[in-house]
Amino acid sequence: MEKSAVFNGKLLPYLLLVPQLIITFVFFYWPASQAVWQSFLREDAFGLRSEFIGLENYQALFAQPEYYAAMLTTLVFSTLVAVLSLSIALLFATQADKNLKAAPVYKTFMIWPYAVAPAVAGVLWFFMFHPSLGTLARPLRWMGFDWNPVLNGNHAMMLVVMAAVWKQISYNFLFFLAGLQSIPKSVIEAGAIDGAGPMRRFWTIVFPLLSPTTFFLLVVNVVYVFFDTFGIIDAVTGGGPAGATTTMVYKVYADGRLGGDLGGSAAQSVVLMVIVIALTAIQFRYVERKVQY
Amino acid sequence: MVEHRPWNDVIAYAILTLGVFIVAFPVYLALIASTHDAGTVVGGNMPLSPGSQTLENYYRAIFVGGSRTSREPVGHLLMNSFISALGIAVGKIIISILSAYAVVYFRFPFRKTAFWIIFVTLMLPVEVRIYPTYKVVADLHMLDTYAGLILPLIASATGTLLFRQFFMTVPDELLEASRIDGAGPFRFFKDTLLPLSVTTIAALFVIQFIYGWNQYLWPLLITTQDSMQTIVTGIKKMLTTTDELAEWQLAMATAVLAMLPPVAVVVFMQRLFVRGLVETEK
């Protein structure tokens, strides 16, 4: 879509673009290209000398058992968070979509965790499930469950998953609710006239019509789990115990900052970039195809 | 609803109430913990009703800081968070409304290229290029400055896309009419386009303010002095002492303070926030 009426400035449009372009080049393109370039270099510990070593950083990376462990952790973590937060949010959204008097109030109460910083959400959940002082850790212990996220990797994973899901429900809820409200009521009424009950109507009419929303949310959620949960993991577990909650993004941070391995960290960044670009591309293709009919 | 069944509403209310409970409980606990003294919280038998130490805890968190570590009082960190969140929101709105204006209302060589150069930034969050970005900021001597906290986070296309979408819906007749009145690009922008954009600007402001306030990894990396931290990064430092020594009642007071501004913004600006969110993501 193009405007038919426009101005014919010669210099002005460039001047208007300059602030954004400068910031984009300095803080986006330059560092992103540096990340790619650095992934082919080996730097000494003081960053004084560097030499071109081709793909050695990548070879070293893919020879590391820890890297595969981080990939697996990321996969488990993102699957759990995406599936749980999507299904819980869908349940709440379908209820809030019913003609309830108090629906707007519930909506307000459901959406505000969006505004809570992931790191703060992590701290809240850690406090609730802290092995010695957590309010909800006590009943677990009392039931004979040896709960200890500080020492037990699976427990630590459960804790970061819960905090991440809690934080993400509100976002998915909003989009599901918007999706549900855009479904024409007549379609559902037609289903009811044909004798379909609420459950059947949901699975055969509503859910298929929600699939573009669901797909969009799936991609956004995966990207969220990849990056925004850094704060949760760093605040709650620090990637531990014994690397049980070290995701790929956390490893980029840990290897670069704590390990001082900038080449290896850059190679990991590049692998992540490829994954995110692929996800985004898939989403655009899919969304575009949806728009056509 | 198509048919009315009384139990249908009951189930809906029950599920939603459970949902609100799940959403609210962690925050309720934090609130409660911030009103008790250290012993009650650490003892592991904290009651579920408020204690009597509220004022003292918040006073200490904001103005004094913790006793066991040399930590910054939170009041200062709150100010850093405000400045960087405001800077990110305002900065992004300014650069993106200008660039969207150029892309939509002008025809010039490389227009498409410029748009794509900006558009590509949607794909890569700052987390992927943290170290190279850190190096750029360090080379520009922007570590421990507000500019360093703000500028790298406004380098993305979301705002430009939102304004572009909105400008596309503005009727062409408005431009023609103001042309007849003899208005140039500046007057049209100031007198016609800007007033029409107020709600879009407000929606983007809400989203970017929250985004900026909640940043964690970036401020963690580029601030070396405690005095330049934001409240979200500061909260973790309160807990990095060994468990028994952490002052949980102060950490929870800090958590409450860190949540208050963005949550208030979402609750009071709900309509704008929802609109902006749904529009930017599409």
Automatic annotation (TrEMBL), chain A:
The chain crosses the membrane at residues 12-32, 67-93, 114-136, 156-180, 201-227, 266-287. InterPro entries: MetI-like, MetI-like_sf, UgpAE/MalFG_permease. This is sn-glycerol-3-phosphate transport system permease protein UgpA. Keywords: Cell inner membrane, Cell membrane, Membrane, Transmembrane, Transmembrane helix, Transport. The gene is ugpA. It is found in: Cell inner membrane; Cell membrane. It is a multi-pass membrane protein. Belongs to the binding-protein-dependent transport system permease family. It holds the Pfam family BPD_transp_1.
UniProtKB/TrEMBL annotation, chain B:
One of its GO terms (biological process) is transmembrane transport. One of its GO terms (cellular component) is plasma membrane. InterPro entries: MetI-like, MetI-like_sf. SUPFAM superfamilies: MetI-like. The chain crosses the membrane at residues 12-33, 82-106, 113-134, 146-167, 188-211, 248-269. Pfam families: BPD_transp_1. The keyword Cell inner membrane applies. Keywords: Cell inner membrane, Cell membrane, Membrane, Transmembrane, Transmembrane helix, Transport. It is found in: Cell inner membrane; Cell membrane. It is a multi-pass membrane protein. Residues 78-269 form the ABC transmembrane type-1 domain. Part of the ABC transporter complex UgpBAEC involved in sn-glycerol-3-phosphate (G3P) import. Probably responsible for the translocation of the substrate across the membrane. The complex is composed of two ATP-binding proteins (UgpC), two transmembrane proteins (UgpA and UgpE) and a solute-binding protein (UgpB). Belongs to the binding-protein-dependent transport system permease family. NCBIfam families: PRK10973.1 (NF008210). This is sn-glycerol-3-phosphate transport system permease protein UgpE. It comes from Bradyrhizobium sediminis. The lineage of its organism: Bacteria, Pseudomonadati, Pseudomonadota, Alphaproteobacteria, Hyphomicrobiales. The gene is ugpE.
